[in-house]
Amino acid sequence: MLIGNVGAEPDVRYYEADQAVATVSLATRERGYTLPNGTCVPERTDWHSLVFYRRLAKVVEQYVHKGDKLYVEGKLQYSVRVDKRGMEKKVAEIVVDGMEMLGSRANVQSAPAAQRPDGGPSQDGQSKEPEAPATPSDDTVLPF
Fold first, then answer.
1. Helix (H) or strand (E) holding 105
2. How far, CA to CA in Å, does 23 sit from each of 14, 16, 128, 131?
3. SS3 73
4. Rounded to an integer, what distance in angstroms lies between the CA atom of residue 117 and that of residue 108?
5. What kind and span of H or E run contains 11?
6. How far is Cα 132 from Cα 63, in angstroms, rounded to an integer?
7. Which of 52, 42, 2, 44 is CA-nearest to residue 26?
8. Per residue in 23-61, pLDDT tens?
9. pTM of the complete model beyond 0.90
10. Which of 38, 45, 90, 99 is most buried per CB count within 10 Å?
11. How far apart are CA 15 and CA 21, in angstroms?
């Protein structure tokens, strides 16, 4: 499972009988922190290659854009590829089984409060009150 931001527009390709495959780069971030002995551990960003197949790839093509926040679940897959110079490179990709869109940077910044994820209308059309964000206790260190 990963939660992160999409780094570039998805690359979607079609093959046999209208089947699709989409690749997406996802950035995850681990916040910096200070250890009890005073050592500062800097913030770190990791990039992950995600691969979506069939119907999920079509959903990605239509709805996922650069900057969107995603929650994904999948399997880690390793393969060997040959680069332009003929060198073999071992590549790790996450083959995504499930995805949930957590928000779009453009929609959150430009949408009125009633349409935002935190104050959007409920299924019955009524606006709901925004929920207070959960705050961890001071002794909890979050990895992101």
1. helix 105-110
2. 12, 17, 36, 34
3. strand
4. 8
5. strand 11-15
6. 27
7. 2
8. 999 999 999 999 999 999 999 999 999 999 999 999 999
9. no
10. 99
11. 8
